[in-house]
Amino acid sequence: MGYVGGRQSVPTSPTDPKRFLVDQRSLLDHKPTKNRSGPAEVRPKPAVCHGCAVPEGHTIHRLAKDQGDDLAGRTIRASSAQSRFVEGAALIDGTVLERSEAWGKHLFHTFDSGRVLHVHLGLIGKWFRRVPDEDDGTIAPPTPTTRLRLEVQDVAWDLTGPMVCSVITPDEKAAVVARLGPDPLRRNADPERFRARVRKSSKPI
């Protein structure tokens, strides 16, 4: 799964397809639960990735919407507990997120500085949504494996294990999108361009 609400991912197993059958719409339908050993955390209801543990395009579009709802128009505190992305996080720390959008399996966050955060989850990447503890009102610190945290006062999004996590320019974003081709899930998608691309390809769908 590419997006979970608590500290642990939704359990999945390639040998038990029934465990995958999670309604994606239920992922945000959650309530804070008390953890005896620490702050409150958000746990998702039982869910499915419809037979695949790898996040597909519809999951990324949902992430873009949910993260935009939480973070767009707000000044972001960006950090990297893993230390692998400290310099990249510093480039967007203290800037305002203008919009979040998905193109295929690629997630883009555009900031008022003009910089763009580009994320591709790959096989094992996950986003975790963190909320403040009910008692002390603080958000738990990121785990040591957190590549990037995007945080505002009342919510934080933690990224672990992505295949791609980089800060790029708008021109570099345009180049990535040009290589990807059309995304039929986008509202401004051109169906004919998508169909033409599929007809030219010999790869099975």
Please characterize this protein's 3D structure.
The strands form three sheets. A five-stranded mixed beta sheet has the order 1-8-10-9-4. A four-stranded antiparallel beta sheet has the order 5-6-7-11, sandwiched between helices. With 205 residues, the chain is of the alpha+beta class. Strand 2 (31-33) and strand 3 form a beta hairpin. Helices cover 21% and strands 24% of the residues. The longest helix is centred in the N-terminal third of the chain and has 15 residues, at 57-71. The chain has helices spanning 57-71, 86-92, 170-180, 191-200, and strands at 3-4, 31-33, 41-43, 77-79, 97-103, 106-111, 116-120, 126-130, 146-151, 156-160, 164-168.
Relevant terms:
205 residues, alpha+beta, five-stranded mixed β-sheet
Radius of gyration: 17 Å
Structural class: alpha+beta
Ranges where pLDDT stays below 50 over 5 or more residues in a row are 6-54
Strand line-up across the major sheet = 1-8-10-9-4
Tell me the fraction of residues in β-strands, as a range: 15-25%
Total number of strands: 11
Mean pLDDT: 76
- Number of DSSP helices? 4
The rounded distance between the terminal residues' Cα atoms is 21 Å
Provide the succession of SSEs. Answer: EEEHEHEEEEEEEHH
Helix content: 10-25%
Q: Name the shape in a single word.
A: elongated
